[in-house]
Amino acid sequence: MTATRSAARVPASTSPVARVLPLLGVPHLDREFDYLVSESLSEDAVPGARVRVRFAGRLVDGFIIARTDESDHRGELSWLERVVSAEPVLTPGLLRLVDAVAHRWVGMRTDVIRLAIPPRHASAEKSVPDSVASQGVTLGPVEVPAGWADHPMVARFLEAATGGLAPRAAWTVPPGRDWAVALASLADSISRRGLQVLLIVPDQRDVDRLTAVCRSAVGGGAAGRDLVTDLSAGVGPSARYRRWLRAIRGHARIVVGTRSAVFAPLPELGMIIVHDDGDDSFVEPRAPYPHTREVAVQRSLLDGTPLMFSAVDRTPEVAEYVRTGWAHEILPRPGLIRELAPQIVAVTDADPVQARDVAGGRTRLPAVALTMAREAIDIDAPVLVQVPRKGYIPTLLCGSCRTPARCRRCNGPIRAGRMDDVYGPVDLACGWCGAPETAFRCVACGSRALRAGVVGAGRTAEELGRMFPGVRVRTSGGGEILDSVPASPAIIVSTPGAEPVAEGGYGAALLLDSWALLGRPDLRAVQNALRLWIGAAGLVRPASEGGRVFLSADSDSAVAQALVRWSPQSWAERELADRAEVGFPPAVHMIAVDGPAEALADFLEDFRLIDSVEVLGPVDLPEGDQLPGHDQIRDPERLLLRVPPAGLDQVVNEVKAFVVGRSGRRNADPVRVRLDPIHIG
């Protein structure tokens, strides 16, 4: 029957050969294959369309890359089995981006396509109208968007962006400024000139907030729903594909999304805006593990698309773009930061006066912090308290030698707080096995004393409730995150990143336990700490209105001074110089090659650029990091390659050749390659 059907097929009269990329997920087969197109499928078999082809005896999905008259293959060609959808979702521009991302991050195009193009839903394709005709660019003088009058350079940036140039810019959000409102105003200004705008934010909370503000900016109501759409996995596959089609068919003029939205092939894209590029959510957890910021950079280079980085802080990566002149800084008018910033006081436990406990041991809050909170409550303003972790007392240490308290049964961490389990109500118990601890003794020094390592949000809220009777205390973080709070006396205890916006701004903010953020064994620990502090401090009223911020950190440290002076740009420049001196990204590139010890030994034996690249390791895979199929992998290790920027392409080609060659061997364990991982080890 198959032979009869094949005999009945007639090759297409024009361009009968389709070059197809099957989605096989195997490195050595990540290439195009030629198939014959029958006349009956010719009209729908357009470049970029989804198809089904037969490969090695089974039907697989694929995309048509091109149609040609002849094939370089000298054998008999198989037929294209089916056109799944005639929608050309893999556009030429998207294909160029897919190729660039797959090459740079040593991955497969098939993996990048799965990140870039959502799964198809036939009903969605039928419900979305056909592509609209190009609206063209509205000429004329550029008006400064609402709320941007205190940034004189933004007019020149918009003139260049809407005039066919490809400017790149970095904007640091001033204190007290609502970044969502500012970006929505900017996007509305661009969309009114006939262009589409793509805004990328870290998570669903930011998507919801920015989408609502953008819809209000374009007029609200039906117009807002038609002109603004959001792309994120949280809406479900069918709704996501419908919204994605509305964007790529030109109906939506402002598109807000999370990391995968950076690939959306918008036909009239006028600008990409990436907000808060220092957030870890922008690192794709699936192969080939690209960073959204760098994908946006690749897209800007390939398509000449204007690009803007927005954040409350400044990452060393963006600082490098500004330093080299690849991106220009959108500066506020002189004196604006000083007018808008709250007063910031940094104090550590080493200060015997300011840090003394005024509550007789009932709280760890120093006198200056309690004074700030009381003064804010007295003027009917809410107070924000940022603590590094949720819970009650997540970490317990020996009171004498600070060794972590461990369970005698399973070596798990001892936790505090009333809990009911199979053992009944207890005060101290193991956080892993739940066994109660009634007679703790430190294994290092024998002491029976315990102290809190990091006091959680729950315990902090309890302490503040005793200190401020009659004042409402609420928590934000974990399972319950508040979006906003009214302008009334209240204490909001929040974990970093979950701070709600206060109507009229907070009267004070207390940033506690700074050492818990700064002491993490991570290259980016200080960078993340400053980002979280400045994000919380930016929600406080200006100093002229009584706004004050307490930071429990050494006031002489560079990171504390960056907050006190409200100068994240200067800190990023200093951090960039420090990393260049010791050879860390972004001054150099780091390529992590993870796999079994035997595979890494083979890699080092075959690696021909050993003299031009600094090789670090191999070492054991970092604790908590697991390879795909880790149950079958013995002795997982990590190898680090320190690569100068100029030599990246050559090293990438060499590593890719090893990955492809290993993929073609039978029973060879694969290796995982990551470019510039945020957690190096």
Keywords:
single chain, 681 residues, alpha/beta, Rossmann fold, 7-stranded parallel beta sheet, 6-stranded parallel beta sheet, 28 strands, 21% strand, zinc, nucleotide-binding, PriA_3primeBD, PriA
Indicate the topology.
Blueprint: H1 2-8, E1 17-22, E2 33-36, E3 50-55, E4 58-68, E5 80-85, H2 92-104, H3 109-116, H4 122-127, H5 154-162, E6 168-172, H6 179-191, E7 196-200, H7 204-217, H8 221-227, E8 228-231, H9 237-248, E9 254-257, E10 269-275, H10 292-303, E11 307-311, H11 316-323, E12 328-329, H12 336-340, E13 343-346, H13 367-378, E14 383-386, E15 395-398, E16 414-421, E17 424-430, E18 450-454, H14 457-467, E19 472-476, E20 484-485, E21 490-494, E22 501-502, E23 508-511, H15 514-518, H16 525-537, E24 548-551, H17 558-564, H18 568-582, E25 589-596, H19 597-606, E26 614-620, E27 636-643, H20 648-663, E28 672-675
Parallel strand pairs: 6-11, 6-12, 7-9, 7-10, 8-9, 10-11, 13-24, 14-21, 14-23, 19-21, 20-22, 23-24
Antiparallel strand pairs: 1-2, 1-4, 3-4, 3-5, 15-18, 16-17, 25-27, 25-28, 26-27
Domain Primosomal protein N' 3' DNA-binding: 24-118
Keywords: ATP-binding, DNA replication, DNA-binding, Metal-binding, Nucleotide-binding, Primosome, Zinc
Cofactor: Zn(2+)
